[in-house]
Amino acid sequence: MANIKQFTFNPFQENTYVVYDATGECVVVDCGCYTPEEQQVLVDFLTNNKLKPKYTINTHCHVDHVLGISFIKEKYGAQSIAHGEDITMLQMLPQHALMFGLAIDSAPDIDIMVKDGDRIRFGNTELMVIHTPGHSRGGVCFYSQSGNFIITGDTLFEGSIGRTDLPGGNYNIILSSIKSKILSLSDDITVYPGHGSSTTIGKEKTSNPFLK
After folding, report:
1. 0.85 surpassed by pTM
2. Can you tell me the distance from the alpha carbon of 197 to that of 158, in angstroms, rounded to the nearest whole number?
3. Is pLDDT above 90 for 212?
4. Any residues with CB less than 8 A from the CB of 102 and at least 6 apart, and which?
């Protein structure tokens, strides 16, 4: 059974997740650790739990969600995964980081590009890729049927939805993505967003003002 650990990193208060199981293999989702102190927090958790990252995987490639990809790739030899439609944006990482006073020398390479319906496998765990554009063109969610959770990045939050005023954003498209791809899942599924607290699909159906 898949387990999930949440960290909140960098000036944007971005949620980074480690998904792991009893085999010790894991993935790091939206690795946003930026400072050496944040990197050490993540390393300590991996070390203490005897975990080895097989992949670093991204719901999308905005600056706050990619600051730690290179660190994980270099330290653990993990392969990086993202949707192809966000690669052009990722390549602008040094420029985008500079706009927020952050120093990044170069953008990480993406080793594997995924599409809707693909499966990411590690240990005994499988995550299904669900393409949910609207916050960015290449935005995806990662759904664990066995773990009964979905990692939504900046597509769906507790009581809110992702911004659509950034490059690649589209309000109508993000609403369509949420309603057709996420809300169609079971109400009891836990939602782990890119910022803020976890929620459930059922709660967002009934209380999210953007989805009424």
Report:
1. yes
2. 7
3. no
4. 11, 34, 63, 67
